[in-house]
Structure to design on (333 residues):
């Protein structure tokens, strides 16, 4: 063999491995999740993969709009939101690209977009929290539909109907119970003087202080208020055999269309769907891991024990406008 041929062979051997295993690049994430709830997850990912992550945190709706503006040349590769509706909004605007892998398929289909556009990472259910000094166990409501009863007049707080979790819940009610029923129910809540506060943190604190007997919240607000030492309990409503169940919404993540670091973003999505990150991501906020078999934080009810509304989260997005119109008509605030 001539020295030239030998050199060609050596060169080939040197080149082949580097083309097969391209070095990992960086990853840019826009996140609507509060930083203490996402930074530990990103740190674990960086440790495991060596991929450098740049995080920009902010209000989910503002970041979603930024993602739209930046198309077709986005700065971020991946978006994290606290509600399926925000992810679905971007999907309907054609600002996401699908990704499904073997690991992602292990997350139940109900909690991700049918076409792979977004992935649910942790679950949160709509519950009623109550003040244990104001209500005895036998007085507790078993259904959200009891809250229109005059005996609850002036005793209930909820977050503003501009809140994504509240809007998603009302859309779910419309899909399960129909438009006419939902409108009538919301009018009853209004007639009962239900108070809408700025956000769920205000609701949990007001119930904790005893200003309201009941609060409509996502379940982790109950756990946060309990951790603060307040006398609060939680009701998972509508759990009977013929009842509607509760809405389980998700915090989730999505790969942005035209992202510059697609492989890194896909690796992050796989990481989020795997047991270690599932446990960490969910536990940071008392949420439910969505990967079957991963335990909830101590004291948090297991997702498998909860009767859930029979709807897919990716059905909520296209219903959004109708719900907003209904809320306008009802005028709940
Ligand atoms: Fe929240």
């Amino acid at each position: 063999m001539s020295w030239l041929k030998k050199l060609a062979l050596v060169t080939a051997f040197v080149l082949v491995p580097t083309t097969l295993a391209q070095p990992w690049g960086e990853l840019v994430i826009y996140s609507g999740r509060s930083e203490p709830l996402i930074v530990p997850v990103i740190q674990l990912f960086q440790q495991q993969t060596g991929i450098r992550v740049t995080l920009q945190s902010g209000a989910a709706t503002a970041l979603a709009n930024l993602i739209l503006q930046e198309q077709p040349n986005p700065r971020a590769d991946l978006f994290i939101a606290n509600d399926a509706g925000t992810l679905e909004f971007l999907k309907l605007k054609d600002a996401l690209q699908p990704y499904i892998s073997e690991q992602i398929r292990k997350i139940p289909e109900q909690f991700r977009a049918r076409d792979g556009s977004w992935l649910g990472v942790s679950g949160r259910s709509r519950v009623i929290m109550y003040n244990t000094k104001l209500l005895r166990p036998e007085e507790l409501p078993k259904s959200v539909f009891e809250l229109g009863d005059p005996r609850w007049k002036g005793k209930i707080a909820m977050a503003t109907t501009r809140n994504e979790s509240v809007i998603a819940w009302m859309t779910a009610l419309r899909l399960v119970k129909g438009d006419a029923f939902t409108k009538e129910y919301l009018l009853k809540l209004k007639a009962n003087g239900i108070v809408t506060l700025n956000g769920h943190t205000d609701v949990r604190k007001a119930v904790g202080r005893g200003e309201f007997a009941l609060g409509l919240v996502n379940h982790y607000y109950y756990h946060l208020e309990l951790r603060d030492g307040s006398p609060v309990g939680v009701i998972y409503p509508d759990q009977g055999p013929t009842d509607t169940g509760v809405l389980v919404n998700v915090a989730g993540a999505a790969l942005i269309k035209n992202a510059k670091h697609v492989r890194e973003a896909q690796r992050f999505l796989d990481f989020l769907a795997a047991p270690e990150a599932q446990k960490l991501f969910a536990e940071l906020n008392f949420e439910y891991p969505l990967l079957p078999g991963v335990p909830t934080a101590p004291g948090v009810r297991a997702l498998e024990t909860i009767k859930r509304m029979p709807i897919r989260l990716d059905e909520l997005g296209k219903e959004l406008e109708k719900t907003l119109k209904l809320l306008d008509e009802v005028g709940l605030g």
The CA atoms of residues 148 and 191 lie 8 Å apart.
